[in-house]
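Handoff note, outgoing to incoming analyst
You'll be picking up this chain. Sequence as last confirmed:
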Amino acid sequence: MTRAMAATSMPHGDIAEANPPAHRSRKGRAGKIWLYVAAAAIVAYCLLPFYWMVVSSLRSPAHIFDTSLLPPHPTLLNYRAVFSRQNTFGLALRNSTAIAGSVTVLALLLGISAAYALTRLRFAAKNVVLGLFLATSMFPGVAILTPLFGLFADLGWIDTYRAMVIPDISFSLPLGIWVLTSFFRAMPWELEEAAQIDGCTRRQAFMKIILPLAVPGVFTTAILIFIAAWNEFMIANSMSQTSRSQPVTVAVAQFTGISQFDQPYGTQMAAGVIVTIPLIIIVLIFQRRIVSGLTAGGVKG
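Most recent structure output, in case you need it:
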């Protein structure tokens, strides 16, 4: 009787909290299961093209159109053909490394300076300038391809690194400035002011205090710029005329196959695996730095 009276006197909400229905826990477990299923589907969707590229690279030319999930007779023939003297793939790897590395270093130097100015200096229309930087990244590259080719032809730059490095910087710099500006806005600028009070110039305070703290954002920007320059094809395909300056993206497109009568699907897949694996390793190793750099400035206070 006492328990019944106590239950009657309790508010309806308190009874619901004291005795949660069982279907709530089942609903929560079902929601987690669907979340895991959705995550697994996204991961499979992203990895399936790379898996198929690996499987196709292990097929012989006679079985290249086989649709089995695993190659019946795996072979490294395509990988040996990639590094044959005919394809000069090693030279293309060196060209891509030189081009992407140069673009990354120069874009970082310009991007750090521009991001610092947009964050710390006071001048009119600062947000307009940042908006113009972002607007240039939306400009189609194919629209300036012909004028660039004519300009570089007059300068004698065709088939040189300069004809690919300079356009790549113009496309990569807006992304670098945007990422670095977002990161610099979250910096503790009181440290810079304290260093100037102690006698440092603005440049010394930036080099000794701010720049070391900005390493995660700079590192993230460097990886993003390097990947974009490594994967660039349109400019490189127009500006590189011989294997002396062709990067891997152009070299893969011009593969002739294991023999001159073969379709180059197998060697192209093998070359794609070789080119993609270093980028995957870099992203997996430094994924935390990339995420922290991209999310910097998202929370204030």
